């Protein structure tokens, strides 16, 4: 590809991105949406978060982990328990990080 081809591809991708992301801002009035769709869209952020976090916990270099001695498993469990107990995001992050660092630095996992 030449420099012009690359620039044209980048420009085209930028235009498509702007159009698709601003699709709901273009109409002057709110688009009608069924109640079941509104209810389903409430779970989209949680589904996206799970899709990003879950592979980081159970995969190593694209393969499932083969041992229970992985600090990520215990850190995720500790963070989940903290959130269940206290319902605080900051505490969840601190608890999970503390468990992971303790296991990685202390036991070498």
From TrEMBL:
The chain crosses the membrane at residues 6-26, 46-68, 88-107. Keywords: Membrane, Transmembrane, Transmembrane helix. InterPro entries: Brnchd-chn_aa_trnsp_AzlD. This is AzlD domain-containing protein. It comes from Ideonella alba.
């Amino acid at each position: 590809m030449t420099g012009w081809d690359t620039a044209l591809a980048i420009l085209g991708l930028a235009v498509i991105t702007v159009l698709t992301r601003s699709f709901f801002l273009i109409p002057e009035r709110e688009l009608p949406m069924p109640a079941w769709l509104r209810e389903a869209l409430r779970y989209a952020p949680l589904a996206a978060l799970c899709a990003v976090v879950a592979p980081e916990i159970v995969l190593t270099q694209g393969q499932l982990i083969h041992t229970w001695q992985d600090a990520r498993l215990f850190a995720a469990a500790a963070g989940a328990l903290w959130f269940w107990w206290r319902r605080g995001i900051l505490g969840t992050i601190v608890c999970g990080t503390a468990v992971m660092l303790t296991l990685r630095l202390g036991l070498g996992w």
